[in-house]
Structure formats: structure tokens, C-alpha cells
Write a structure and sequence with these properties.
Elements lengths: L3 H8 L3 E6 L5 H8 L2 E7 L3 H10 L4 E3 L18 E4 L24 H11 L3 E4 L5
Amino acid sequence: MQDANYKMMKTNKQLIGIDLFAGAGGLSLGAEMAGISMRYAVEADAYAAASYKRNFKNATVFCEDIRKLSADKLNTQPVFIIMGGPPCQGFSLSNTKTRDMSNPNNRMFEEFLRFVDKIAPTWFVFENVYG
């Protein structure tokens, strides 16, 4: 028997997605291939944000520090999925110098959680490295 989320995916014509720490849009590409309309992206790097905008012409891209961005700007209910891969260099097993909470990037996952908490999507995908 199919569950309710699968039925919603099959019947809802407008599944809305948000990509945080979006880069050029690798996660968004997979989402769009699955039928999700990527509405918003947040990416601090100007070159990556420009690539994202070129790859996803219908998305609004916020090229800014996510810590300064209000989740209300991305809250177009209902949001089906929020996805993202916060900076992971500080968590990587290959990092022997700043693999602790003194590395400011190691707290960026909290921004992902802030958006998930505020927007309350049906699903979220959090991508990061082992460790």
C-alpha cells in the first residue's frame, strides 16, 4: 500500500523545493528530475549563485550570507522539501586543525535547521560528510 506522501507526490502538480547552500544546483537538478519545482536557493558564493540562476531560471536565488537571511523570505507554503549541504570542511576526517566547534563554518548546520524549523516542509534532505 502506498503511503500518503507518495500519493501526494503523484497527484500534486506543484511540489515546491528550496535549496540551501545550493552551489550550482546539484541537489536541485535531482529534485527537478523527480518533479519538484525549485522555487528558492540560497548560496553565498557569487559565482556559484550565478551558475545556479543560469541552471534554474525560474528560481529566485539569494546570493547572501544565510545567517542574515530571514526564513520568511522563502516561506511560500506549502513547501514540499528543503535540501542543502552546509559547509562540511570542518567536519571532514581529513581536517586535523579545526575539526571542532571553534571553526565558524561548523555551526552553519544550525542555519539549515532554522529554515526547516520555520518553514516546516514535508521533507528535508541534509547532505554532509561522514564524521
